């Protein structure tokens, strides 16, 4: 590999979007990708609503690795695990050999948080963070109306619960939160979501966690922290994701929640950049589709000789819970202001306003979803254009 090549680690949305954006600018610069999986392209958000759409793992794939390589004119090593990075030598070490690079992009994603749990079946919890995980989950999933326990009543847990409920399953959600998705939603919206899902058959065991998971005659038995027990056929752990930073940290790069980068997406390493779920860009770790798209577009310019800082406009997140749809555009951390909350039979409308009255964030749900675009236009950008650009 020549030293002017761009080497991308990871074949998810971040890696492939970057390759596409680079090719829109430069059709000749050599691109190489390394991935530990099969490299097939699929929409990761579909993992949490593929069941109701009747899609198995194969059905979620929109393009094979070979087709993606052809479309983006890149070479790709699949099933290849990276074991180290040498910043000084500009070299990536893998189980199959070493690769030099001109520029290196870490698009490594995130891995599931697995909380400690006792019991003889604790290692039989399912997690879904990849196509492989989804295939394994579908293989183990009994026919409805089997009972699925979901550990984690946050965004991902609620999306999976919605998917399972619509498909005819019994679902119980367990977690320490006072109400669903409590880290993103005001209580009024969280409670409205809780009630809508409960009406569809969901059971809630909130303000407690699952301490023990044991094999039972026809499935599993969970013992919760209040000493109550719960029988189920399958346990899905959806506590959350943690940015994949181990490789960067071992290489001596600066890490915090994610791989720390500036607004050019450059890490503390020489010609090493980070993109997507693993990146912490100017203090922001945003594991959603729209930030990836904006960051990939900027990084493509930078890597092809036109340095471009990333600009993040207001980017509301649509939570896939059609039983009670929700859109959230949270205010920035530590921003001064107050929530102004309206609760109606059709849903909730929650506006976070600055002391002088400007809109800094919002959450809408149920019948207020048609206000998304108008409210978004009133929000400030997450990262505005620099005065120097």
* N-to-C CA distance: 33 Å
Q: How much of the sequence is in beta strands?
A: 25-35%
Low-confidence stretches: none
SS-based structural class? alpha/beta
Largest sheet: 5 strands, parallel
Overall mean pLDDT score? 96
Radius of gyration, rounded? Answer: 22 Å
Helix content: 10-25%
Q: Describe the global form.
A: globular
Strand order of the largest sheet: 5-2-1-9-20
DSSP, total strands? 26
Number of helices: 9
Q: Briefly, what is this?
A:
With 389 residues, the protein is an alpha/beta fold. 22% of the residues lie in helices and 29% in strands. The mean pLDDT is 96.
Give the helix/strand layout.
Blueprint: E1 6-9, H1 13-25, E2 31-34, E3 41-42, H2 57-60, E4 61-63, H3 65-72, E5 75-77, E6 82-86, E7 91-94, E8 97-100, E9 103-106, E10 110-112, H4 131-140, E11 147-151, H5 155-166, E12 170-175, H6 187-199, E13 203-206, E14 210-216, E15 219-224, E16 229-232, E17 234-237, E18 241-243, H7 246-250, E19 259-261, E20 272-274, E21 279-281, H8 289-303, E22 317-319, E23 326-329, E24 338-344, E25 347-353, E26 359-365, H9 372-377
Parallel strand pairs: 1-2, 1-9, 2-5, 9-20, 11-12, 11-17, 12-13, 19-21
Antiparallel strand pairs: 3-4, 6-7, 7-8, 10-18, 14-15, 15-16, 22-23, 23-26, 24-25, 25-26
Helix pairs in contact: 1-8
Please give a structural write-up.
The protein is α/β, with parallel strands linked by helices and 389 residues long. Helix content is 22%, strand content 29%. It contains nine helices and 26 strands. Helix 1 packs across helix 8 (289-303). The protein is globular. 41% of the residues are buried.
